[in-house]
Specification:
With 331 residues, the protein is mainly β. It contains 2 helices and 26 strands. The relative contact order is 0.11.
Amino acid sequence: MKVPGISLLVFLACTASISALSTLPSGTLVVSKSPSPGQYESIMKAVKALSTTSTAKQTIYIKKGEYKEQVVIPLLRSPLSIYGETSTPLTYKGNTVNIKHSAGQSDGFNNDQTGTLRVLTPNFSLYNVNVYNQKGKGTQAVALSAQKENQGYYGVSIIGYQDTLLAQKGAQFYAKSYIEGAVDFMFGDARAVFYDCDIGVSAGGGYVLANGRNTSDLTSLFLVDKCRIHAAEKHSVEEKTVYLGRPWGTHSTALVQRTDLGKIINPKGWSEWSKTDQHTDNAILAELDNTGEGASGERASFAKKLRSYVPFETVLGPSYRDWVDSAYVAS
């Protein structure tokens, strides 16, 4: 099926205790539950110690522990990288740093304000940290609010229920990470790639992706590539009750390719936004070469099939190699 007005259509039819850093750069701010002199006992105290005027790259290293706080990264002039202590840098499975907070729209906040980790600066990287919004069912409650361009998330876990991950603006890259939720839990207006991630669904009846693009130009796009979408561990999810996504915006664009889809996925694959406000006329919700029990079945009439794989540069732009960590991308 041909859809006019978008260039994208050419594609349609280590040691026991380490981090991704080998050594800590000079000037690294260290966070610890038992801080030594010169270290910080909370993540926000380290964040407040960052320079907002320097253009030299800054680094925070977080030692093992549970940090019950909301973390807000302000606008900086420099790149910033935050590393969590881990035994397995290239995956989330050995992470030892947990940031936990509970806030939802039912508390009087907007989506961004509910975020456990709110990143308001570009040129940001996060490694091997688990981020939780513990508000639970019944309200929108963001774990990660990613608000600027050129942000990379590597070996992280992002866990909530509804609206877990707000990928809101610019080019963003998520690799070898874990994202969990039940309702519209990967949403926003960014140009985001999710690569080699485990996506866990904690309840049936919901939707994974909710891209918010509302214009005909390609300002927003979600690409899920070589991921795995299954029921979250220790959660019972009925077969065929979960949709890959629904169009939050009138021109919503979400693509899923080379991904393993579990039996929880409904054969239609995709849903309209609502019965009265469908948003399907200009939406591009497409797949190619997915596998698993959830990859079969007659897809929704408005769903499309990619003609070829969509490369990262289509989503992130031609200069993405300048800021994406190549260690997390297969050669």
